[in-house]
Design brief:
It is a single chain. This protein is an alpha/beta fold. It contains 29 helices and 34 strands. Helix 9 runs parallel beside helix 15 (296-309). Residues 862-866 have low confidence and may be disordered.
């Protein structure tokens, strides 16, 4: 068996992986101890990547409409329709919407085709939704989109500030690095409206009012100036300071005004400001809570101002650090995947356009920035975009105001979707579907959050007729008439061209450059080890601006609106620990699916009591854009008046949880990034007459036609959690043929069915109106049992059976009741002891905050009586 070194398919941490094929579509996954990003550690998602490489649900052949087609016919049609549309309506009548799931080589070819040969900049990426405010902020301050930090800075920091990031869940390997540094004495401050698992482990948690980040950071800089820690020498030598900067900063930035604006205790705010002022080695990491705002760029610049003015940049352990969400968001930024950039960190200035056109020998390069994502789909809906190609993303789910996005897709004359999955919410609207290679089948490079470029290597064969994205795009380019420009035979050729462009006529005014990387051959590309470009940016105090100085950008806190009468709540959105985007990958992994089986709306206990919301009940969350159902989770970690919902569920996986329907399509004026984090909303309880679950072997069936249904992957099949207020008989249609065993209890409104086929359990249906439902674990295990248990309709084995409870540690599949029992029975005193006893928390560590909470809750009664 050959071990292949590759890179994880998930977040921007960019963890190295060792993959060993052990059978047909089977692979053993291990962390690569030699990779600088993770040093052998993997989070729960990376650990279980081997469960996601099967072919269930895959698109394996080109499709025109509902019919299978040859590659030639499909590609010829795409090329013809784009060519004809351009001829009739001009190059700006077509668009590409691409993805941070693409490799750099894929991104490069798509950007070259659209901007250099079609002649429009209407190519944008779903990275617009997660980190474009960081791009705009970096560019405003530094003159170029440079992340001036590395993971090693975390190792050297004495104060670590996390802003708008549930790092323990969203970037677990970075979080473990943070915890290791905190264990060595560094302090951790978490700034987040929610008391997340990350916040629970902090030395200080500031649960600020959503949208008040500019006030908080301006206040920190004002405090630093008063404390005398503004670096006057650095300010004089390396910064351009607008004449009114300090005057603007001082307005409303005193401690008491900031505390009122942010709705935090002045004493807590003072502690943060004192720690920052006293700690030269400070790293401030920020993510979607900062970026996904209609003031996202100003919020980024408020953080950058603080670090620049205090000289905490370009030094070990001192940097602002944007941590990205997608595996190759950074690679897309490098090649120009955003509509607002040209290529290789160049904008659309005339000299840059001329330079790139010379390099590409293009017939007519884009003359101006293109449509950013929200504007692109708005123009699509208004009929100005006539042909759209969607690559490796699902905008019908992920875009804000997704209902309008669906209407726009339905009205578009020609939609192409190239994807791994056959049926997605977006591919429903496709006239042509093109089967793309998946992770494990792709060959190329990715760039992680700290500018480290790593190879992603194929270790599985291409299934069916699937092809790499770069191949699909270059074939369309050739059929549109540009054969020479798109004559690539392998990704190494694209990589070398990308490297040459980065250094072409680059006299050092742009820091992004890959000199020396374009001369190697195929063997050197195949053997490429991870490397970080750019060294330590700004260590010399020089910046890629015309005068070599960074800019302090005056930013002011915008007034925060009061609750609206009809929409009195504030809606926040985000990720769950063990799921990713729209679950086309993680939704296949049984061990990941059980941590959060259903989409929950988290609500503060006071709001739940006031609105008659029951923990575990259903509720409808509504905004002016749309509405969707969620399971209620009453959580003291929410601020009163605020709600939190996850982004992952789709029409393919649930009848509710459609979060994309809810946010406003309002964007930051500089970055064009949508504001997902602060939407006016309402919530109301939804009554149901019955609830239950269905467990099925085999492949997934269509979503049950009832009020509430969510699909959960399990070994050998699927679990559907269901509820409704109509006739539940529709659920009977889900059951396969076979021998039926049934039991009905009219007193509890209970109905239970087991289906036996070929002497094995094939399905169960459990429904109740007033009674209790058994744990699903034992019944799920019966799908693999060699014989039918006589107590199958009881939902448990004869005698007492242990119920492990909700999954806490996905890496080792350990539930809450198992952990609590071990704490009590073995008198476990700390998280390390839990790990030694059960293994929980010893792999990725993302469950350690939850373990610490369980430990405290379990030991609390004993302490109370001690």
């Amino acid at each position: 068996m050959t071990e292949i070194r590759t890179t994880c398919a998930y977040c921007g941490v960019g963890c190295g992986i060792r993959a060993t094929v052990t059978g047909d579509r089977q692979v053993r996954i291990e962390g690569d101890p030699d990779h600088p990003a993770n040093r052998g550690r993997l989070c729960s998602k990376g650990t279980h990547l081997g469960e996601t490489v099967g072919l269930e649900g895959r698109l394996l052949h080109p499709m025109i409409g509902k019919r299978r087609a040859s590659w030639d016919k499909a590609l010829d049609l795409v090329a013809k329709r784009f060519r004809d549309t351009i001829a009739q309506h001009g190059p700006d009548s077509v668009a590409f919407y691409v993805s941070g799931q693409l490799l750099t080589e894929d991104y490069y070819v798509a950007n070259k085709l659209m901007k250099g040969f079609i002649g429009s900049a209407n190519i944008d990426t779903n990275s617009r939704l997660c980190m474009s405010s960081a791009v705009a902020g970096h560019t405003r301050a530094f003159g170029e989109d440079i992340v001036p930090a590395s993971y090693e800075d975390i190792d050297a920091a004495d104060l670590i500030v996390l802003v708008g990031s549930n790092t323990a869940w969203c970037h677990p390997i970075v979080y473990q690095r943070i915890r290791a540094r905190c264990d060595a004495g560094a302090k951790l401050v978490v700034i987040d409206p929610r008391r997340t698992e990350t916040a629970e482990q902090a030395d200080l948690h500031l649960a600020i009012r959503p949208g008040s980040d500019v006030a908080l950071m301006n206040g920190a800089l004002a405090w630093a100036r008063t404390a005398g820690v503004v670096d006057e020498d650095f300010l004089s030598a390396s910064l351009a300071v607008p004449e009114d900067f300090w005057t603007v900063l001082d307005e409303g930035s005193d401690l008491w005004s900031v505390a009122k604006t942010c709705d935090v205790a002045p004493a807590d705010l003072r502690r943060f400001y004192e720690w920052f002022a006293a700690t030269p080695r400070t790293v401030t990491l920020f993510s979607q809570g900062i970026n996904q705002s209609t003031a996202g760029t100003d919020q980024v610049n408020a953080i950058l101002n603080l670090h620049l003015a205090t000289g905490r940049i370009g030094k070990p352990g001192a940097a602002p650090f944007s941590i990205t969400g997608q595996p190759n968001a950074m690679g897309g930024r490098e090649v120009g995947g955003l509509a607002s950039t040209l290529a290789a960190h160049m904008d659309f200035a005339p000299e840059n356009r001329a330079r790139v056109q010379r390099f590409w020998a293009s017939p007519g390069i884009a003359s101006k920035p293109g449509l950013k994502a929200v504007d692109l789909f708005r123009e699509l809906g208004q009929g100005r975009i006539k042909a759209l190609w969607i690559m490796a993303t699902n905008p019908a789910v992920s875009m804000p105001d997704a209902g309008s996005v669906r209407d726009a897709l339905a009205a578009c004359p020609f939609v192409v979707v190239s994807d791994v999955i056959a049926e997605t919410d977006s591919s429903t609207y496709a006239h042509v579907r093109l089967p793309a290679a998946a992770w494990g089948e792709k060959d190329g490079t990715v760039t992680n959050s700290d500018r480290t470029i790593s190879r992603q290597r194929a270790f599985l064969p291409l299934p069916g007729e699937a092809r790499p994205d770069w191949w699909i795009v270059k074939e369309v380019g050739r059929r549109m008439g540009w054969k020479t420009a798109f004559s690539y035979d392998r990704p190494a050729e694209i990589w070398r061209e990308h490297c040459r462009l980065s250094a072409y006529e680059n006299d050092g005014t742009r820091l992004f450059a890959l000199p020396g990387r374009s001369s190697g051959g195929h063997a050197e590309y195949d053997a490429m080890a991870p490397f970080r470009w750019g060294g330590t940016p700004f260590a010399d105090g020089r910046f890629p601006t015309p005068d070599g100085r960074a800019r302090l950008i005056p930013v002011t806190q915008k007034p925060l609106p009061e609750p609206l009468r009809d929409w009195p709540m504030t809606l926040n959105t985000g990720r769950y620990r063990d799921h990713w985007h729209t679950m086309t990958r993680t939704g296949l992994a049984p061990k990941l699916a059980r941590h959060r089986e259903e989409p929950l709306v988290e609500v503060h206990p006071d709001d739940a009591a006031r609105l008659a919301l029951n923990d575990g009940g259903l509720a409808r969350v509504a905004t002016p854009q749309g509405e969707s159902l969620y399971r209620v989770s009453v959580s003291a970690g929410q601020r009163p008046g605020e709600l939190f919902v996850p982004i992952h569920w789709t029409d393919r996986t649930a009848k509710g949880g459609r979060t994309g329907l809810l946010p406003r399509p309002l964007t930051d004026p500089y970055s064009g990034q949508p504001g997902f984090k602060r939407t006016p909303a309402s919530i109301a309880a939804v009554a149901t007459r019955w609830r239950g679950f269905v467990i099925l072997t085999g492949e997934a069936v269509a979503t049950p036609d009832c009020l509430w249904a969510t699909r959960v992957a399990i070994p050998r099949g699927w679990l559907w959690e269901v509820a409704g207020d109509d006739n539940p008989a529709v659920l009977e249609t889900l059951l396969p043929k076979g021998q039926r065993i049934e039991a009905t209890d009219p007193a509890r409104g209970s109905h239970r069915v087991a289906v036996i086929a070929d002497d094995r359990l094939a399905a169960v249906l459990f429904l109740t109106e007033r009674g209790e439902l058994p744990s699903r674990d034992w019944l799920i295990a019966q799908l693999s049992a060699g014989e039918i248990a006589p107590t199958i309709l009881a939902g448990r084995a004869s005698g007492a059976t242990a119920d492990r409870g909700a999954i806490v540690c996905a890496c080792f599949d350990i539930g809450v009741r198992t952990i609590v029992s071990a704490i009590r029975d073995q008198q476990l005193a700390d998280v390390a002891a839990i790990g030694a006893a059960l293994g929980a928390g010893t792999n990725c560590g993302s469950c350690r905050p939850a373990l610490a909470r369980l430990l405290a809750e379990t030991q609390e009664p004993a302490h109370a009586h001690g």
